[in-house]
Amino acid sequence: MAIEKTLVLLKPCTLQRGLVGEITNIFERKGLHLCGVKMMQLTDEILSEHYAHLSSKPFFQRVKDSMMTAPVIAMCWQGVDAIAAVRALAGPTNGRNAAPGTIRGSYCMSFQENIVHASDSPETAAVELARFFKPEEIIEWKQCTFDYLYANDEF
Ligand code: ADP
């Protein structure tokens, strides 16, 4: 168990559908701690890096194009085991297969237009946070509810 930071992107579909507040509320309600947030218009360059693991897929360009149709909201969320906790909240990639109650299971019908991106490992989270945030844009501040969110042997 460790206190971790993870990257979440609210995708263009989430902004277009007016779900920014609702999805943000899910992370807040869970007890995650917001350490960075900004709106960004992504470029093909940053997306080619971000989705490099998909570069051989036939849908690579389509996924990148979709991520450039409107801005995204980039967020840094912190918590104990935050990376896995956020992935579990997001659910599997294809919204049609995602369990009800997960973000993708509750809010989308698509493999591609699936509401959020969430880092999938500590290594990826570190690289992705550095890709989307300057160090000074990640702000350390005291979460005054911390003692009520965790037992003292949980971090
Ligand atoms: P995840 O976002 O769940 O970590 P991946 O890293 O595999 O999934 O894929 C990145 C994004 O590319 C997905 O969130 C989705 O928007 C898109 N994508 C992945 N696989 C497909 C697919 N088979 N068809 C359409 N879009 C896909």
Our measurement of the CA-to-CA distance between the termini, rounded to an integer number of angstroms, reads 6 Å
Could you describe the largest sheet, including whether it forms a barrel? Answer: 4 strands, antiparallel
CATH topology: Alpha-Beta Plaits
Bulk shape: globular
Number of domains: 1
Strand order of the largest sheet: 2-3-1-4
What is the number of beta strands? 4
Strand coverage percent = 15-25%
Task: Enumerate the distinct ligands.
Answer: adenosine-5'-diphosphate
Percent helix: 25-40%
User: Radius of gyration over alpha carbons?
Assistant: 15 Å
Mind telling me which CATH architecture this is? 2-Layer Sandwich
Question: What pattern of helices and strands is seen along the backbone?
Answer: EHHEHHEHHEHH
Number of helices: 8
CATH superfamily: Nucleoside diphosphate kinase-like domain
Structural class: alpha+beta
CATH class type: Alpha Beta
The mean pLDDT is 98
Low-confidence stretches: none
